[in-house]
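Researcher: Let's do a round of design. I'm pasting the structure tokens now; please hold your answer until I've finished.
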């Protein structure tokens, strides 16, 4: 680690400050699988882990200026962000579960590996496919995902902007992302 250069991640984070979508996509492509693995180990539930990964990258998009390269490398900082978000989610879920003890789901846990497509597609092809698949989403799914990832709105802010219930907006985003994932997996 010669002192002559800035890390590639730090360069991308700096570009995020200028709202560079390609820099965001590259950071997501580089690190989402590892973040997903970390979050999944904490939460033990793939669907919730995917939501937390979305939230972590949304937080990165909205608050890229909080990363300070002088205080350490990007990846441990990102993992700390992910770990904290996963633990917050875990606490919130266990609180909710205590409230509805009678309605516990008796589904066996499903072992999940990080999505295979992230390992099989190179960054550029994946980004191109995501753009093409985004065009195939319903207008509501597409708009909700755009507001979340490109305009930095929270799910609550999106619900207010679209004048739709929060649960509906979350479903649009989740189902849209699942369609994107399935479309990417189908092309590999």
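Researcher: That's everything. Go ahead.
Model: Designed sequence:
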């Amino acid at each position: 680690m010669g002192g002559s250069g800035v890390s590639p991640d730090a360069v991308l984070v700096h570009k995020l400050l200028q709202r560079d979508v390609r820099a965001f996509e590259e950071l997501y492509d580089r690190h989402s699988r590892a973040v997903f693995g970390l979050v999944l180990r904490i939460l033990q539930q793939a669907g919730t882990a995917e939501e937390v990964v979305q939230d972590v990258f949304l937080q990165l998009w909205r608050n890229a200026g909080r990363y300070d390269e002088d205080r350490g490398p990007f990846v441990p900082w990102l993992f700390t962000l992910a770990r904290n978000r996963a633990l917050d989610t875990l606490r919130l879920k266990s609180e909710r579960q205590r409230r509805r003890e009678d309605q516990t789901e008796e589904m066996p846990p499903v072992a999940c590996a990080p999505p295979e497509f992230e390992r099989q597609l190179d960054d550029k092809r994946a980004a191109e496919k995501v753009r093409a698949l985004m065009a195939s989403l319903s207008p509501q799914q597409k708009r909700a995902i755009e507001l979340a990832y490109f305009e930095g709105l929270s799910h609550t802010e999106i619900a207010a902007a679209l004048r739709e219930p929060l649960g509906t907006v979350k479903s649009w985003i989740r189902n849209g992302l699942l369609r994107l994932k399935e479309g990417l997996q189908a092309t590999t």
